[in-house]
Amino acid sequence: MKISESFGEWAMNSINNRRGFVLFLTFAFGIFLIYSAFSVSLIDIVALYRKQNYCLDLAGRVK
């Protein structure tokens, strides 16, 4: 609870001044990039697991 309150306070203070606002935007964009890359890799892992033979044929030897 304390961490989230301090995070919200830091976010509001960052939005108040301009340089902090840019830092906050880059921070949020970095979290978004990490989350999107993680979700895409999870989808790729599921696809590899479901179509294992096809993907292994593509990766190893091309028919």
Describe it.
- It contains three helices and no strands.
- By secondary structure, it is mainly α.
- It has one domain (about 1-60).
- α2 (about 20-50) crosses α3 (about 50-60).
- The chain starts with a helix and ends with a helix.
- The mean pLDDT is about 70.
Order of helices and strands: HHH
Q: Count every helix, treating DSSP H or I runs of 4 or more residues as helices.
A: 3
Helix content: over 70%
Strand content: under 5%
Number of strands: 0
Rg value: 20 Å
Number of domains: 1
Q: What's the story with the biggest beta sheet?
A: none
Calculate the terminal CA-CA distance, rounded to whole Å: 57 Å
Given helix and strand content, the structural type is mainly alpha
Globally, the shape reads: elongated
Poorly predicted regions are none
Question: What's the rounded overall pLDDT mean?
Answer: 71
Quickly describe the structure:
With 63 residues, this protein is an all-alpha fold. It has helices spanning 2-16, 18-50, 52-59.
Write the layout of secondary structure elements.
Layout: H1 2-16, H2 18-50, H3 52-59
Helix pairs in contact: 1-2, 2-3
Structural features:
single chain, 63 residues, mainly alpha, 0% strand, elongated
